[in-house]
Amino acid sequence: MTATPDRTTPAGTAVVGARARRRGQRRDRVFEAAVELFVEQGYEATTMEEIAGRADVARTSVFNYFERKSAFLDEWSARRRAQAFHALGGPAPDIRLRDELARVMTELARLSDSSRRETTAMISAAVLALDLLDDHPLTHEFTDLLERRRAELRPGVDPTLVGITLATGYFALLRAWIGPGRAPFELDRRLIELVDLLLGGAVEVASGAEAGS
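and the corresponding structure tokens:
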């Protein structure tokens, strides 16, 4: 019987850490295999068996990491959001709320534009397999940002409602942007227009600006 490593010792910690890294690497391999297949042949046409074969793991291993096929879509969306918000380097209190939101939208657009075929495959699948409008994590990301910048919103404006509207508008524009062939519009510009349109009715107007109007 194999002894369980003692996590309280340096050697035990190293063993546990190595196992966690290998598990993470296998999980990444399974995820990447799934995305490749979704792009190549479509989400509906791809089976968990094919994902296991592409990743060179047992079928049961795929289910250990992702209990259902739609979990790959959740993971892809989570990684995309993490990339976008991480690129900002954390909260930016020295810039306006509008500019911080514009930076997020610009980065989301850049990621989509740099992998248009993949984005098309994954968002098309998400529209069919997930409810993008039902308490989506992106709504919470936007709402948290707005809560931190609540002082810039007009009194009585609900950050959650603004967050829901931003996330819903983002997915609507992304859905219109994806597809075969040339993009129908510049995604980053349209997303910034969404921010400006929404915040035009939500951002607190400075007293000096009111006096000069």
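(Above: one complete record from the training split.) The CA atoms of residues 71 and 153 lie 35 Å apart.
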